[in-house]
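Run folding on both entries below.
>entry_1
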Amino acid sequence: MPVIETRDLSKNYRRIQALKDVSLRVEKGEIYGLLGQNGAGKTTLVKILLGITRNWQGEARLLDVTAGRAEARRRVGYLPEDHRFPDYHSAASLLEFYGGLLGVPRVERRRRSPEILETVGLRERMHYKIRTYSKGMKQRLGIAQALFHDPEVIFLDEPTDGVDPIGRREIRHIMERLKEAGKTIFLNSHLLGEVEKICDRVAILQKGVMIQEGDIATLTEHKGTFLIGLAAGQMFPVEELAKHGYQATRRDDLWEIAIADGQEIDPVVDLLRGKGLGIRHLVEKRQSLEDLFLATVAPAEPGVDRPGKRLRDDRIQREARSRGIGEKP
């Protein structure tokens, strides 16, 4: 049974369609990444699942109940993007405050605070004021707040935003440990390299429509292209391969072989070995998640035209007005 599920989920803000027929499933123990440009509908989707946004169409379920129900929200942790905690609090007093709001008994709050802060690497600074914390420390404190009541599902919105590489690695390790503990993580991030490292599956939204969804390995496959490297000093038989219908392109110290439909890489390997050449590298090429994202989404943010298009449309409208075309009677 999925932990999160939507079917044909749609949401309109007057004339703006934020989501259109979005269907996804997130299984227990997964780290699921939600990707898209600004305005793609990611925040709207998260807010629907959390019950913050209402009046949507379709189906949205969280922990086997309709999204927005109180019994589901009690079992969910949430770290919003660009959160702001009162900086007069310390980590310990902040968790004490939020724990009270979450209904965690006082004895349990005082027991759990050091444990959670140990998990996110803040125990030694638990009594320092938040105003003294770095960006990375504040992000880890936000994760601690989201984890404090031991939720089953954790929504993290840009958890590594503005964090240095070491901090990003530490937060990634926290998510890995949460997964090992059986937690489900729904991650919203613009850092595609981080998403590729940590997520099991991802979905890409564009203008409210899901345009890609699947596991990382499948989405980053680059079928039909291989990279081959020969022993030092050996020449690659480009022309001879071309006679057999294979195209070879130099990529630094390697050669990229494009395999057309119906072709196999085996004849290329046989030809190279038949000429006494030593194959030192042979791998099917993969694309990064960033490559996939840039090749999939439109070149401008949803609802924003490219500058050239805007200028061209403005010129056309001015010319039309000068001819009296399109004027109101």
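>entry_2
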Amino acid sequence: MANQFEITDVRVYLVESEGNGGDYFQQGKGHWLIDTLIANPMSGYEKYKASRSSWGIGVMGSIVVEIETASGACGIATGFGGHPAAWLVKNHFRRFLVGEDARNVNKIWDQLFRASMPYGRKGMPIATISVVDLALWDLIGKVRGEPVFNLIGGLCHDEITFYCTGPEPAAVRDLGFWGSKVPLPHSHFDGEAGLVKNIEYLAAQRAKVGPDFPLMVDCYMSLTVPYAIRLAEAAKPLGIYWWEEVLHPDDIEGYRLLKQAHPTLTWTTGEHEYTRYGFRQLIADRTIDILQPDVMWVGGMTALLQIAAQAAAYDLPIIPHGSGPYAYHFIGSQPNVPLCEYVAASPDGRSIRPVFGNLFTGEDLPQNGRLKISDAPGFGMEIADRGLLKLFE
């Protein structure tokens, strides 16, 4: 009898429609994610500061990886990377998969990571490994008839609570979410006038939701240490719940200075850190209060579990960035407070829409800001319409 876990084929597809798949930013014109004014790494350039789409935030596009075994079972996952990622899966990573036992996820992950070191280590190559890894976990769950959360330790929580990232915190509150995260409009490039506008904007958001509703601020890698210190000081009366990704992801020393200046405030980062080595220093320095790796970017579930083990030794909570059901299974399995991010996927950010658009059936959605995790096998999702996909050949 053939080994039901033996991998016989690996297929990779390009997602050919906007709003579907694992590239959060591959959205149509007018979607708040790409057209809302937000301080960002390109804010110093007038031509590109108003819209993330202007400087190409969604240019990579989405892929779907499908891994099939000798028994005909298929595991699927989506992520970003477009043509370059698809090329890597087909022409490089496939050799470490076909003929292998799908349960050997640690071995496969290690081989993918080591083999890609000459050109990878962070960014798109690691995100491509993420998609392969998530497809493997989905496959194992489907063959065993078990949800992924059972494969990684079982449930600590059968229900999780959401905050929502979007442009309208009052709408988020009315949808039942625990809290809201809003984008910071201006960076240090906008000078004193921009600082005043930031405080006015945050004060207006606080006024909309009242004093007790948790309000977080996403700074999207856009600020400097002196500016962030001044901004946080000026905003203290507003009761900001946390300040997110204030600095460049590699400015570890900068985060130490922020924590020294404001030790009682909560600082978070991690969505643009891609390896356990990068997280090691963030964890050991104790300058970050909450880690936010993206399971679709950091190397998949295998890598996220490695990072979580490091963080546990320092009692640091992990609240993953976005990632839909991939994050839900992780959060449900961890003893930390079961708080999860939902990135408003609807164009106006005022309603609930599947994170991956119309790509999958079975994607769980929060209701009234909460969700009971499905016990469907794997991540519980199947491709809804193969007409959305183009096989990469």
